Amino acid sequence: NMDRHHYEMFTKFGDDGFLLHLDNARGFGRHSHDETSILAPLSQCCIIKRTTLLRLQLLAEPEYRLSDMMRESLLQDRLAPVLTEPHLLALDRRLQLILKAVRKCIDTYGEAKVVANDTTQPEAPASDRVKLTT
């Protein structure tokens, strides 16, 4: 979301104003334009959590396609349809761009350096381990 770094101050009540973060509906952008510059952190750092990657890969599978999941979820919204069909299909296309960027990182640096394993618990130091007797 390219507009998330903007904010406004609500000052209708004078000095007792407050910060107001706005989403000006640009989060999904134009369905026909993929803003690839927002992938820069991923492409430059080349690191992604294993759980995130697994979820993205799942949402790229035909039976769990991101557009289908969003379409179903948004049907519950009182303002449905929230997104147009071209915007929903753009989600699938953009997901492929993300996965392509991850694949490029893995091809360049190897999976062990790119995919951070967040699925295992760090081992406690030996002094903190509970001693079990049998």
Automatic annotation (TrEMBL):
Any Pfam family hit: Fam20C
Can you tell me which residues form the catalytic site?
A: 3
Its localization reads:
Golgi apparatus
Show where the FAM20 C-terminal domain sits: 1-115
Q: Which residues bind Mn(2+)?
A: 23
InterPro entries, alphabetically?
FAM20, FAM20_C
Q: Name one GO molecular function term.
A: ATP binding
Q: Where does ATP bind?
A: 8, 23
Record's protein name: FAM20 C-terminal domain-containing protein
Which family does the UniProt entry place this protein in?
Answer: Belongs to the FAM20 family.
Query: Which Gene Ontology terms of cellular component type are present?
Result: Golgi apparatus
Coiled-coil blocks: none
Q: What is its main location?
A: Golgi
Q: Which UniProt keywords apply?
A: ATP-binding, Disulfide bond, Glycoprotein, Golgi apparatus, Manganese, Metal-binding, Nucleotide-binding
State its cofactor: Mn(2+)
